[in-house]
Design a protein that fits this description.
15 strands; 7 helices; alpha/beta; 37% strand; single chain; five-stranded parallel sheet
Length: 232
């Protein structure tokens, strides 16, 4: 894994360097105190992961992540910051993790290990067999964006369109890998790999938007907190 580091505080950057150098199979491509310098490196060097502070002079870490996200660059982002005010917005940029300073070494190491695992298992294997009256419909699990229960029927939203079934969410949930799919709400199961952003809907719930799809799902605040802690 090729990693870039940026933090405008020398002591914090040195801490990052010390931790990352101790992780096997991880190479530091650049380490800089300037977000502008980090941006130049990103344009000319291939990296897999950017670890950045958020609040820096001129160009911020959040703006760097926004550039990565808006240009669809295949670079994961971990924010290591003293500010908690960007946590919800970080989801909109699909950052891998949001770590608050001060943090123990193991917190960052485990985050990078999770990223490695997520990268290796990004392709969801297997097929889902749906009962439809006298027929069985077969779809690839990796094509499922989210699943919605309404009344007595269930709609499985896939990349190629919706599919109706009478199987319950409890039945379907047992067929899907917890690492890739979560029960975000009593009426929804979502594939975390397609999530684009969360928009506040009510005090304890958010609307989930997905890449390449107009339809939306719901997620509880509790599940947003869970995703932030264990996935992002």
């Amino acid at each position: 894994m090729r990693v870039g580091l940026v933090d405008d505080r020398f002591i914090d950057l040195e801490k990052l360097n010390g931790i990352i150098k101790g992780i096997p199979d991880v190479e530091i491509v650049f380490s800089t105190l300037s977000a502008e310098e980090a941006y130049k490196y990103i344009k000319r060097e291939e990296i897999d992961l950017l670890i950045a502070d958020i609040e820096m002079p001129n160009l911020s870490g959040y703006e760097l992540a926004d550039i990565i996200h808006s240009h669809a660059l295949n670079i994961a982002v971990i924010f290591v910051t003293g500010s908690s005010g960007y946590a919800v917005h970080a989801f909109e940029l699909n950052v891998h993790d949001y770590i608050m300073k001060p943090y123990p070494k193991d917190r960052l190491v485990k985050s990078i290990e999770r990223l490695n695992e997520k990268t290796r298992s990004s392709e969801i294997a297997g097929r889902l067999y749906l009962k439809q009256k006298n027929d069985i419909h077969i779809i690839q699990k990796k094509d499922i964006v989210f699943i919605e229960r309404s009344g007595r029927s269930t709609t499985i939203h896939t990349k190629s369109g919706p599919i109706k079934t009478y199987q319950t969410l409890n039945e379907l949930e047992g067929e899907l890998r917890e690492r890739d799919f979560i029960r975000s709400h009593r009426s929804f199961i979502i594939n975390i790999h397609y999530v684009k952003n969360f928009s506040l809907y009510a005090k304890n719930s958010y609307i989930v938007s997905f890449d390449g799809m107009e339809e939306t799902a719901m997620i509880t605040k509790e599940k947003v907190d869970f995703l932030q802690h264990y996935y992002f």
